[in-house]
Amino acid sequence: MILAAATMVACGTANKMVVNGDLSLLEKVAADNTVELRISGSEEALATTTLDANKCFTAEVTLPADDFVMVVVNDTPLLELITDGQDITFTYNAETMSVDVEGTPYNAIVRDFKNELGEKMKALYTCQSEEEAEAMFAEVGTFIEAKFLENKDNLAGLTLLQYVVYYGDSERLGEYFAMVNPEFAHTSIYKDFETQVANAKNTVIGADLVDIALADAEGNIIKVSELCNAGKWVLVDFWATWCGPCRGEIPHLVEAYAEFAPKGLEIYGITFDRNGDTEKWQQFIKENNMTWVNVWGTDEKGTWSAGEAYNVSSIPSNFLFSPEGKLVAKNLRGEEVKKILSEHIK
Q1: CATH code for the domain in which residue 46 is found
Q2: How far, in whole angstroms, is CA 288 from its chain's centroid?
Q3: CB-count exposure of residue 328 (10 Å: 0-12, 13-18, 19+)
Q4: Which of 38, 71, 87, 152 qualifies as a cystine partner to 79, CB 3.0-4.6 A?
Q5: What is the reported pTM?
Q6: Residue-range definition of the domain harbouring residue 140
Q7: How many distinct structural domains can be found in the chain?
Protein backbone atom coordinates (compact mmCIF):
# COMPACT_ATOMS: atom_id res chain seq x y z
CA MET A 1 0.00 0.00 0.00
CA ILE A 2 2.84 2.39 0.84
CA LEU A 3 4.52 1.58 -2.49
CA ALA A 4 1.26 2.12 -4.34
CA ALA A 5 0.71 5.46 -2.62
CA ALA A 6 4.25 6.57 -3.48
CA THR A 7 3.70 5.59 -7.08
CA MET A 8 0.47 7.57 -7.24
CA VAL A 9 2.20 10.66 -5.81
CA ALA A 10 5.04 10.32 -8.29
CA CYS A 11 2.61 10.03 -11.19
CA GLY A 12 0.72 13.02 -9.89
CA THR A 13 3.80 15.22 -10.09
CA ALA A 14 4.58 14.19 -13.66
CA ASN A 15 3.77 16.94 -16.13
CA LYS A 16 2.61 15.14 -19.27
CA MET A 17 1.53 17.12 -22.31
CA VAL A 18 0.92 16.75 -26.02
CA VAL A 19 2.22 19.37 -28.44
CA ASN A 20 0.52 19.75 -31.82
CA GLY A 21 2.19 21.94 -34.42
CA ASP A 22 0.94 23.15 -37.80
CA LEU A 23 3.70 24.69 -39.92
CA SER A 24 1.96 24.22 -43.26
CA LEU A 25 2.29 27.92 -44.14
CA LEU A 26 5.92 28.26 -43.07
CA GLU A 27 7.93 28.15 -46.29
CA LYS A 28 11.35 27.53 -44.77
CA VAL A 29 10.41 24.07 -43.49
CA ALA A 30 9.44 20.95 -45.44
CA ALA A 31 7.77 17.60 -44.96
CA ASP A 32 10.02 15.05 -43.24
CA ASN A 33 12.00 17.79 -41.45
CA THR A 34 13.08 16.70 -37.97
CA VAL A 35 11.29 18.23 -34.99
CA GLU A 36 12.67 18.11 -31.46
CA LEU A 37 11.19 19.31 -28.18
CA ARG A 38 13.87 20.40 -25.70
CA ILE A 39 13.79 22.00 -22.28
CA SER A 40 14.96 25.56 -22.92
CA GLY A 41 18.67 25.88 -22.26
CA SER A 42 19.30 22.19 -22.98
CA GLU A 43 20.53 20.43 -26.10
CA GLU A 44 18.89 17.13 -25.10
CA ALA A 45 15.69 16.18 -26.92
CA LEU A 46 12.67 15.25 -24.80
CA ALA A 47 10.88 14.01 -27.91
CA THR A 48 11.82 13.65 -31.57
CA THR A 49 9.50 13.34 -34.56
CA THR A 50 9.14 14.56 -38.14
CA LEU A 51 6.79 16.84 -40.01
CA ASP A 52 4.20 14.90 -41.99
CA ALA A 53 3.16 15.56 -45.59
CA ASN A 54 1.13 18.59 -44.43
CA LYS A 55 4.07 19.92 -42.38
CA CYS A 56 2.31 19.12 -39.10
CA PHE A 57 3.43 17.05 -36.10
CA THR A 58 2.29 15.66 -32.76
CA ALA A 59 4.64 14.86 -29.89
CA GLU A 60 4.21 13.92 -26.24
CA VAL A 61 6.59 14.92 -23.47
CA THR A 62 6.70 14.40 -19.71
CA LEU A 63 8.37 16.98 -17.46
CA PRO A 64 9.02 16.86 -13.72
CA ALA A 65 7.73 20.44 -13.30
CA ASP A 66 6.35 23.41 -15.21
CA ASP A 67 9.05 24.71 -17.52
CA PHE A 68 9.88 26.27 -20.88
CA VAL A 69 10.12 23.93 -23.88
CA MET A 70 11.80 24.87 -27.14
CA VAL A 71 10.45 23.58 -30.46
CA VAL A 72 13.44 22.95 -32.71
CA VAL A 73 13.09 22.20 -36.43
CA ASN A 74 16.18 20.90 -38.25
CA ASP A 75 18.30 22.02 -35.29
CA THR A 76 16.97 25.60 -35.54
CA PRO A 77 14.96 26.99 -32.56
CA LEU A 78 11.49 27.96 -33.73
CA LEU A 79 9.31 28.62 -30.71
CA GLU A 80 9.44 28.58 -26.91
CA LEU A 81 6.39 27.20 -25.12
CA ILE A 82 5.38 27.51 -21.46
CA THR A 83 4.23 24.18 -20.06
CA ASP A 84 1.84 23.42 -17.20
CA GLY A 85 0.63 19.91 -18.04
CA GLN A 86 -2.01 20.99 -20.56
CA ASP A 87 -1.87 20.10 -24.25
CA ILE A 88 -0.66 22.86 -26.56
CA THR A 89 -1.49 23.56 -30.19
CA PHE A 90 0.27 26.13 -32.32
CA THR A 91 -0.10 27.25 -35.92
CA TYR A 92 2.17 29.39 -38.05
CA ASN A 93 0.34 32.51 -39.25
CA ALA A 94 1.75 33.58 -42.61
CA GLU A 95 -0.09 36.92 -42.54
CA THR A 96 1.51 38.08 -39.30
CA MET A 97 4.66 35.94 -39.77
CA SER A 98 4.27 34.72 -36.20
CA VAL A 99 3.00 31.66 -34.35
CA ASP A 100 -0.47 31.49 -32.81
CA VAL A 101 -0.42 29.40 -29.62
CA GLU A 102 -3.43 27.89 -27.87
CA GLY A 103 -3.72 25.55 -24.93
CA THR A 104 -2.42 27.10 -21.71
CA PRO A 105 -3.25 30.37 -19.97
CA TYR A 106 0.41 31.36 -19.72
CA ASN A 107 1.04 30.99 -23.46
CA ALA A 108 -2.14 32.97 -24.07
CA ILE A 109 -0.86 35.77 -21.81
CA VAL A 110 2.41 35.97 -23.73
CA ARG A 111 0.61 35.76 -27.08
CA ASP A 112 -1.78 38.62 -26.21
CA PHE A 113 1.10 40.65 -24.77
CA LYS A 114 3.16 40.32 -27.96
CA ASN A 115 0.18 41.31 -30.12
CA GLU A 116 -0.51 44.40 -28.03
CA LEU A 117 3.17 45.31 -27.90
CA GLY A 118 3.37 44.97 -31.68
CA GLU A 119 0.56 47.49 -32.12
CA LYS A 120 2.25 49.93 -29.76
CA MET A 121 5.55 49.58 -31.61
CA LYS A 122 3.79 50.32 -34.91
CA ALA A 123 2.48 53.54 -33.37
CA LEU A 124 5.99 54.35 -32.13
CA TYR A 125 7.39 54.14 -35.66
CA THR A 126 4.82 56.65 -36.92
CA CYS A 127 5.75 59.39 -34.43
CA GLN A 128 6.36 62.75 -36.07
CA SER A 129 8.81 64.21 -33.55
CA GLU A 130 11.48 63.11 -31.12
CA GLU A 131 9.37 64.35 -28.20
CA GLU A 132 6.40 62.29 -29.37
CA ALA A 133 8.60 59.22 -29.80
CA GLU A 134 10.08 59.58 -26.31
CA ALA A 135 6.60 59.87 -24.79
CA MET A 136 5.41 56.82 -26.72
CA PHE A 137 8.49 54.80 -25.74
CA ALA A 138 7.88 55.67 -22.09
CA GLU A 139 4.30 54.46 -22.54
CA VAL A 140 5.60 51.19 -23.98
CA GLY A 141 7.88 50.75 -20.97
CA THR A 142 5.01 51.39 -18.56
CA PHE A 143 2.84 48.86 -20.41
CA ILE A 144 5.53 46.17 -20.25
CA GLU A 145 6.21 46.77 -16.56
CA ALA A 146 2.51 46.57 -15.73
CA LYS A 147 2.10 43.26 -17.58
CA PHE A 148 5.13 41.82 -15.81
CA LEU A 149 3.80 42.85 -12.40
CA GLU A 150 0.47 41.21 -13.20
CA ASN A 151 2.25 37.92 -13.92
CA LYS A 152 5.30 37.93 -11.65
CA ASP A 153 4.01 34.84 -9.82
CA ASN A 154 3.69 32.65 -12.93
CA LEU A 155 5.99 31.49 -15.73
CA ALA A 156 4.63 34.08 -18.15
CA GLY A 157 6.17 36.69 -15.87
CA LEU A 158 9.67 35.32 -16.52
CA THR A 159 9.11 35.70 -20.26
CA LEU A 160 7.81 39.25 -19.78
CA LEU A 161 10.78 40.17 -17.58
CA GLN A 162 12.99 39.75 -20.63
CA TYR A 163 11.01 42.54 -22.31
CA VAL A 164 11.29 44.71 -19.18
CA VAL A 165 15.07 44.46 -19.43
CA TYR A 166 15.12 45.22 -23.16
CA TYR A 167 12.51 47.98 -23.41
CA GLY A 168 12.02 49.17 -19.86
CA ASP A 169 14.18 50.14 -16.90
CA SER A 170 17.01 47.60 -16.97
CA GLU A 171 18.66 49.38 -14.03
CA ARG A 172 15.92 47.94 -11.81
CA LEU A 173 16.47 44.32 -12.88
CA GLY A 174 17.46 43.21 -9.38
CA GLU A 175 14.34 44.79 -7.92
CA TYR A 176 12.10 43.18 -10.54
CA PHE A 177 13.78 39.78 -10.31
CA ALA A 178 13.30 39.71 -6.53
CA MET A 179 9.54 39.71 -7.21
CA VAL A 180 9.68 36.50 -9.27
CA ASN A 181 8.49 33.31 -7.58
CA PRO A 182 11.64 31.32 -6.57
CA GLU A 183 9.87 28.03 -7.30
CA PHE A 184 10.89 28.63 -10.93
CA ALA A 185 14.58 28.42 -10.01
CA HIS A 186 14.89 25.17 -11.99
CA THR A 187 14.30 26.94 -15.32
CA SER A 188 17.14 28.18 -17.51
CA ILE A 189 15.56 31.64 -17.83
CA TYR A 190 15.50 32.07 -14.05
CA LYS A 191 19.15 31.00 -13.84
CA ASP A 192 20.09 33.46 -16.61
CA PHE A 193 18.47 36.29 -14.68
CA GLU A 194 20.31 35.22 -11.53
CA THR A 195 23.58 35.63 -13.44
CA GLN A 196 22.52 39.02 -14.79
CA VAL A 197 21.62 40.29 -11.34
CA ALA A 198 24.95 39.05 -9.97
CA ASN A 199 26.79 40.85 -12.79
CA ALA A 200 24.79 44.07 -12.45
CA LYS A 201 27.38 45.45 -10.04
CA ASN A 202 29.84 45.51 -12.95
CA THR A 203 27.89 48.21 -14.79
CA VAL A 204 27.18 50.64 -11.95
CA ILE A 205 28.90 53.99 -12.51
CA GLY A 206 32.08 53.96 -10.45
CA ALA A 207 32.51 50.18 -10.69
CA ASP A 208 35.96 48.72 -11.20
CA LEU A 209 36.86 47.35 -14.61
CA VAL A 210 36.08 43.68 -15.16
CA ASP A 211 38.89 42.90 -17.56
CA ILE A 212 38.31 41.66 -21.09
CA ALA A 213 40.91 39.74 -23.10
CA LEU A 214 39.95 38.97 -26.71
CA ALA A 215 41.71 38.39 -30.04
CA ASP A 216 42.02 40.96 -32.81
CA ALA A 217 41.97 40.18 -36.54
CA GLU A 218 45.60 38.99 -36.42
CA GLY A 219 44.99 36.72 -33.44
CA ASN A 220 46.71 38.97 -30.90
CA ILE A 221 45.10 38.86 -27.44
CA ILE A 222 44.43 42.41 -26.22
CA LYS A 223 43.34 43.27 -22.68
CA VAL A 224 41.36 46.36 -21.77
CA SER A 225 43.39 46.62 -18.57
CA GLU A 226 46.59 46.98 -20.62
CA LEU A 227 45.10 49.98 -22.42
CA CYS A 228 44.00 51.60 -19.15
CA ASN A 229 47.40 50.94 -17.60
CA ALA A 230 48.96 52.75 -20.55
CA GLY A 231 47.02 55.86 -19.51
CA LYS A 232 44.16 55.47 -22.00
CA TRP A 233 40.50 56.28 -21.58
CA VAL A 234 38.79 53.20 -23.07
CA LEU A 235 35.33 53.03 -24.63
CA VAL A 236 34.37 49.34 -24.68
CA ASP A 237 31.85 49.09 -27.52
CA PHE A 238 29.68 46.02 -28.25
CA TRP A 239 28.38 45.91 -31.83
CA ALA A 240 27.90 43.76 -34.96
CA THR A 241 27.99 44.29 -38.72
CA TRP A 242 24.39 43.04 -39.00
CA CYS A 243 23.09 45.52 -36.40
CA GLY A 244 21.42 48.56 -38.02
CA PRO A 245 21.59 50.81 -34.93
CA CYS A 246 25.27 49.86 -34.52
CA ARG A 247 26.03 50.95 -38.07
CA GLY A 248 24.22 54.22 -37.37
CA GLU A 249 26.56 54.93 -34.46
CA ILE A 250 29.80 54.26 -36.37
CA PRO A 251 30.12 57.74 -37.97
CA HIS A 252 29.84 59.30 -34.50
CA LEU A 253 32.53 56.97 -33.17
CA VAL A 254 34.81 57.68 -36.14
CA GLU A 255 34.45 61.42 -35.59
CA ALA A 256 35.00 61.11 -31.83
CA TYR A 257 38.04 58.88 -32.30
CA ALA A 258 39.65 61.33 -34.71
CA GLU A 259 39.27 64.13 -32.16
CA PHE A 260 40.04 62.35 -28.90
CA ALA A 261 42.50 59.57 -29.78
CA PRO A 262 45.38 62.10 -29.78
CA LYS A 263 44.25 63.13 -26.28
CA GLY A 264 44.25 59.60 -24.87
CA LEU A 265 41.11 57.79 -26.07
CA GLU A 266 41.04 54.20 -27.28
CA ILE A 267 37.96 52.34 -28.49
CA TYR A 268 37.83 48.61 -27.82
CA GLY A 269 35.27 47.33 -30.33
CA ILE A 270 33.84 43.88 -29.60
CA THR A 271 31.93 42.34 -32.50
CA PHE A 272 28.99 40.01 -31.93
CA ASP A 273 29.29 38.65 -35.46
CA ARG A 274 29.07 34.88 -35.59
CA ASN A 275 31.88 32.45 -36.28
CA GLY A 276 32.50 32.22 -40.00
CA ASP A 277 31.91 35.94 -40.59
CA THR A 278 35.51 36.95 -39.91
CA GLU A 279 36.28 38.08 -43.46
CA LYS A 280 33.06 40.10 -43.65
CA TRP A 281 33.87 41.69 -40.28
CA GLN A 282 37.40 42.66 -41.32
CA GLN A 283 36.22 44.13 -44.60
CA PHE A 284 33.49 46.12 -42.84
CA ILE A 285 36.02 47.56 -40.39
CA LYS A 286 38.28 48.67 -43.22
CA GLU A 287 35.51 50.20 -45.33
CA ASN A 288 34.12 52.17 -42.39
CA ASN A 289 37.46 53.56 -41.20
CA MET A 290 37.19 51.88 -37.79
CA THR A 291 40.89 52.29 -37.01
CA TRP A 292 40.66 51.57 -33.29
CA VAL A 293 41.15 48.23 -31.52
CA ASN A 294 38.70 45.66 -32.90
CA VAL A 295 38.35 42.19 -31.38
CA TRP A 296 36.23 39.10 -31.88
CA GLY A 297 33.47 38.65 -29.31
CA THR A 298 34.06 34.99 -28.37
CA ASP A 299 36.89 34.14 -26.01
CA GLU A 300 39.34 31.24 -26.30
CA LYS A 301 36.65 28.89 -24.93
CA GLY A 302 34.17 29.98 -27.59
CA THR A 303 31.89 31.74 -25.10
CA TRP A 304 30.52 35.31 -25.11
CA SER A 305 31.81 35.93 -21.59
CA ALA A 306 32.52 39.65 -22.13
CA GLY A 307 28.91 40.38 -23.05
CA GLU A 308 27.70 38.29 -20.13
CA ALA A 309 30.00 40.07 -17.66
CA TYR A 310 28.55 43.43 -18.73
CA ASN A 311 24.94 42.24 -18.99
CA VAL A 312 24.76 43.17 -22.65
CA SER A 313 21.22 42.23 -23.68
CA SER A 314 21.13 44.44 -26.78
CA ILE A 315 23.55 46.24 -29.06
CA PRO A 316 24.96 48.78 -29.49
CA SER A 317 26.11 48.98 -25.87
CA ASN A 318 29.23 50.76 -24.65
CA PHE A 319 31.10 51.51 -21.43
CA LEU A 320 33.66 54.28 -20.84
CA PHE A 321 36.52 53.52 -18.43
CA SER A 322 39.06 55.94 -17.01
CA PRO A 323 42.80 55.21 -17.01
CA GLU A 324 42.30 54.14 -13.38
CA GLY A 325 39.89 51.42 -14.55
CA LYS A 326 36.70 53.06 -13.24
CA LEU A 327 33.41 53.07 -15.16
CA VAL A 328 32.48 56.73 -15.72
CA ALA A 329 29.71 56.52 -18.38
CA LYS A 330 27.80 54.00 -20.44
CA ASN A 331 25.55 53.59 -23.47
CA LEU A 332 26.61 56.81 -25.15
CA ARG A 333 24.75 57.60 -28.38
CA GLY A 334 25.18 60.02 -31.27
CA GLU A 335 26.46 63.47 -30.35
CA GLU A 336 26.50 62.43 -26.69
CA VAL A 337 29.70 60.48 -27.36
CA LYS A 338 31.74 63.62 -28.02
CA LYS A 339 29.95 65.57 -25.31
CA ILE A 340 30.80 63.08 -22.56
CA LEU A 341 34.33 62.53 -23.85
CA SER A 342 34.98 66.30 -23.82
CA GLU A 343 33.94 66.39 -20.14
CA HIS A 344 36.53 63.76 -19.20
CA ILE A 345 39.36 63.98 -21.70
CA LYS A 346 41.07 67.38 -21.74
Answers
A1: 2.60.40
A2: 26
A3: middle
A4: 71
A5: 0.70
A6: 107-203
A7: 3
